[in-house]
Structure formats: C-alpha cells, structure tokens
Design goal:
mainly alpha; 4 helices; 130 residues; 62% helix
C-alpha cells in the first residue's frame, strides 16, 4: 500500500500554505506615521513610535519583525543625524543637514509603508542610508 505522506520525490513542488488569519499591519503603519509627524512635533511622536516598536518586536512573522527592527534603527540613526544637525546649526551648515535628515526620514518611512503594503520586509534593513 502506497502511503503518500512520505513522498521523497525531489521533483515535487513546494507548496506554500498561508495562515488563515491575515497579519495586522496597523501598528507598524502607525509607527511610520508617528515618525513622519515627528518632523512637526520635534521628535516627540517618534519617541512614542520607538517604544511601540520595542514592545511589539518579536511577536509576529519574520517580515513584520524586520519592520520593527527597521523602525528602531530609523529612530536611533535619526537621533544621531538630527542631533548632529542641531549641533552644526551654530555653524549654519546644520540647517542644510537638518533638511537632508528630513528627506532621509521621509524616504525610509515611504519605503516602510511600501513594504508593509506588499507584505514583505523593507529592503536594506541594516543600512544607515536610505
């Protein structure tokens, strides 16, 4: 009797089974929105966003955890860039660097939103650039 449970045929196709429950991407989207709002609030909403990212990382599928990691890195790298721009404002070059940091933040948030909509992790999670 042939039992097809243990079919070791190397030419067999892999079947991807999706989970019956869709993954909720609301919180990561809220975090990206909080980061964008931090441009106006002076970073206060970004602080709220990074706390949420720290609390919820590790509690979802791999691609969603990569978003939380990306958001945490965006916060800390952004703190460095905006802090550097603030220090250099005394030399007037800080204004240009602040503008570059804002563009950097917007691009990272847009990339994150796009990845969430496509249900995949963001590209280049470990990069310091965009």
């Amino acid at each position: 009797m042939n039992d097809n449970l243990h079919n070791d045929d190397p030419h067999r196709e892999n079947i991807v089974i999706e989970s019956p429950e869709p993954v909720d991407t609301t919180l990561p989207m809220v975090i990206y929105a909080l980061y964008l709002a931090s441009i106006i609030t002076g970073g206060l909403t970004a602080l709220v966003g990074v706390v949420i990212a720290y609390v919820y990382r590790g509690k979802g599928p791999e691609w969603l955890d990569q978003h939380y990691r990306y958001q945490i890195r965006t916060f800390w790298i952004g703190m460095l860039y905006f802090g550097l721009a603030a220090v250099l404002m005394f030399v007037l070059i800080g204004f240009a660097l602040w503008l570059v940091a804002v563009v950097w933040l917007v691009i990272r948030c847009v990339k994150g939103f796009k990845g969430l909509q496509e249900r995949r992790s963001p590209e280049n999670v470990d990069t310091w650039l965009v």
